[in-house]
Specification:
The complex is a heterodimer of chains A (325) and B (266).
Chain A: E1 6-15, E2 18-28, E3 33-37, H1 44-51, E4 59-64, H2 73-79, E5 80-83, H3 95-105, H4 110-123, H5 139-151, E6 157-161, H6 169-184, E7 189-193, H7 197-203, E8 206-211, E9 214-219, H8 221-228, E10 232-237, H9 244-252, E11 256-262, E12 265-270, H10 276-285, E13 292-296, H11 300-314
Parallel strand pairs in A: 3-7, 3-8, 5-6, 6-7
Antiparallel strand pairs in A: 1-2, 1-4, 8-9, 10-12, 10-13, 11-12
Helix pairs in contact in A: 3-4, 3-5, 4-5, 8-11
Chain B: H1 3-19, H2 21-48, H3 54-59, H4 62-69, H5 73-90, H6 92-111, H7 115-119, H8 125-163, H9 171-196, H10 202-230, H11 232-256, H12 259-264
Classes of the chains: A alpha/beta (325), B mainly alpha (266).
The structure holds adenosine-5'-triphosphate (ATP) and magnesium ion (MG).
Chain lengths: 325, 266
């Protein structure tokens, strides 16, 4: 496995108001989209600020692009691109000026920076407003300009804090596709904070779930699902909801862990895929018609909600997937 | 220090000042009143008739009364007001401009939510601070100096029929302009930096700053008149003291201006 582009260990940060991040340990590999998930106030933005050397930790270490973020911050930030939670554009400047200003600070050649900035504004559908002051822009328009600004110098590592919040559906799809292609085709590493689980599911190879500053799960959705639930979930279409007798019969089978009735059938959890034929056979033997049997991979959403539910029950020290203390 | 970065930041700040009416109006209003309207009015009224300032001047200390009274009666008003009284008032200009601009760049940056963007750029804490100092100090001093040139032209032109000679700048004025004005600009800046790092927004910065700066203005105006008359050596020494205080404040500001501290207050 290649060296991680980013790794941190025991990252901790307190504020007068409380602990924002407590002992965060994770890593990201080149070309990977790492999703940071968690409810409001979980510590996602704080994590980004720490990893880009903007905030200093109270404890813990990190290496980002082979650099120490707090001692080699300038060097690091020259190679990272950040989209902050609120776009942070200068209202008194035009869209284009906001970009060319950052290009100048980044030491880009002004001759090359302008066409590059225009190209990116075009890419995000903002070229027609390039020379308009940002003051009157909508939330989504600001976000597009800020995204263009984050990509200006073609950074190796991107920190994107809620990149699609406030965007319309078409722009959202565009941005999601862009993030995907940046990682997959251009080998860029993306740390993505988001509340949209669907988007995270489509993009992220691994997810880190934070709750009030604690890492509650870290891994691929499949890995986490494997640790959360044993076996495979199967949906059986019986044409009508399964009755109590059938559920009792099926639960009695050795390979079946759990059965719940759903509309038009039932959801069964079995120990492995190999158990599906015997499950179907048992239904047929009980005189039911089986119209379909679909093994279901849990989605990132399922994983997230399960982690959230278990965290609420177990608290931060409970035994949760992917986090090996 | 990385001058490419500092120049880029400076260009942005200066461009934004130029576009902001809230900044340009106070920057232009007081200097215009003090440096154009006042000398024009004094000059015009001196041309109309000779105002008797002798009674008033006799109440002043000997050192100021003497040079005024040694001039012909029709020149006395002009020499008294434009030669002596405006000089200390003039220091309000750099002081006020620098405190308005410092509040805007230090507290305003955070308020406009653009500070986080800057913190995520490859800019060192020191370069960021130096750029902000310059973007306050350069315009404050520039307004003072340009204002002074205008003041000289207006005064000499309007007063020509009475004076018949170029009577400004005097040596006193030169010291005020080139030695005291930048020092006072740096002082206003130093105070506002300290204030801005402690408050939440520009309004608070200006209110708190006003509470500190205004008494300074009163003291400055009160004392400078006496100082100027005490002679150039004392003026130079006092200027030096102001520079030292301003330098210390700004130096300590730079030490306090740390990314981590800024980010923790976003
Ligand atoms: N500068 C700060 N000063 C004081 N407390 C802070 C600061 N920054 C973050 N916190 C606190 O730390 C916790 C984590 O905040 P953070 O902004 O990292 O959350 P988040 O996961 O990004 O939330 P959201 O989804 O709402 O953006 C919160 O409880 C917040 O109040
Ligand atoms: Mg956040």
């Amino acid at each position: 496995m290649s060296d991680p582009v980013l790794s941190c260990e025991g990252l901790t940060r307190h504020f007068p108001s409380g602990t924002a991040l407590d002992g965060l340990t994770l890593d990201a590999r080149a070309g990977e989209v790492l999703a940071l998930l968690g409810p409001n106030g979980a510590g996602k933005t704080t994590t980004m600020r720490l990893l880009n050397g903007v905030l200093s930790p109270d404890a813990g270490t990190a290496t980002v692009l082979g650099l120490n973020p707090w001692r080699q911050g300038e060097e690091l930030r020259a190679r990272t691109g950040v989209l902050t939670e609120n776009a942070g554009l200068d209202e008194r400047l035009t869209a284009l000026e906001n970009l060319t200003f950052v290009a100048r600070v980044r030491g880009m050649d002004p001759e090359a920076a302008r066409p590059r900035a225009m190209e990116l504004l075009e890419r995000f559908g903002m070229a027609h407003r390039a020379d308009v002051r940002v003051q009157g822009f909508s939330t989504g328009q600001r976000k597009r300009v800020a995204l263009a600004r984050a990509l200006l110098h073609d950074p190796e590592l991107l920190f994107l804090d809620e990149p699609t919040s406030g965007l319309d559906p078409v722009a959202t799809r565009d941005v999601v596709e862009l993030i995907g292609s940046l990682a997959a085709e251009h080998g860029r590493t993306v740390v993505l904070c988001t509340h949209f689980l669907g988007e995270a599911g489509r993009l992220a190879s691994r997810m880190a779930v934070l709750f009030s500053g604690h890492l509650h799960a870290f891994g691929t959705p499949e890995e986490l699902a494997g640790e959360l639930w044993s076996g495979v979930e199967v949906r059986l279409d019986l044409g009508h909801q399964a009755d109590g007798d059938l559920l009792r019969t099926l639960t009695g089978l050795t390979h079946v862990v759990q059965c719940v009735p759903v509309e038009q059938g039932l959801l069964a959890r079995v120990t492995s895929r190999d158990a599906v034929p015997s499950l179907v056979a048992a239904c047929v033997a009980a005189g039911k018609s089986v119209y379909a049997a679909e093994p279901r991979q849990p989605s990132l959403e399922d994983v997230y909600f399960e982690i959230e539910a278990r965290s609420a029950r177990l608290g931060p020290t409970g035994d949760l997937p992917g986090v090996h203390r | 220090m990385n001058w490419t970065v500092i120049r880029a930041l400076l260009a942005r700040d200066l461009g934004m000042i130029r576009r902001s009416r809230a900044l340009m109006l106070p920057m232009l209003f007081l200097p215009t009143l003090l440096l154009v309207v006042l000398p024009a009015a004094i000059g015009l009224s001196a041309r109309e008739r000779t105002l008797d300032v002798e009674t008033f001047v006799n109440m002043l200390p000997e050192s100021i009364a003497e040079p005024v009274l040694s001039a012909p009666p029709e020149e006395r008003l002009i020499i008294l007001v434009l030669g002596y009284m405006v000089a200390p008032l003039f220091l309000i200009v750099p002081l006020m401009v620098s405190s308005v601009l410092a509040a805007d760049t230090f507290a305003g940056e955070k308020e406009r939510k653009t500070l986080e963007t800057l913190l995520h750029l490859p800019v060192s804490d020191r370069d960021l601070y130096v750029a902000k100092l310059l973007s306050t100090f350069v315009p404050s001093t520039a307004v003072a100096w340009v204002g002074f040139v205008v003041f000289c032209v207006v005064s000499n032109v309007v007063c020509w029929p009475v004076m018949g000679r170029v009577f400004i700048p005097t040596r006193t004025w030169m010291l005020v302009i080139f030695w005291l004005a930048p020092a006072v600009a740096a002082l206003g800046l130093g105070v506002m930096v300290r204030v801005s790092l402690r408050v939440e927004n520009t309004q608070e910065a200006q209110q708190l700053g006003g509470a500190v700066v205004l008494p300074m203005v009163v003291v400055a105006v009160g004392q400078t008149t006496g100082l100027l008359l005490a002679g150039p050596v004392v003026t130079v020494v006092v200027g030096l003291v102001v520079w030292l205080i301003a330098g210390t404040l700004n130096w300590r500001g730079m030490r306090a201006y740390r990314r981590n501290t800024m980010a923790a207050r976003l």
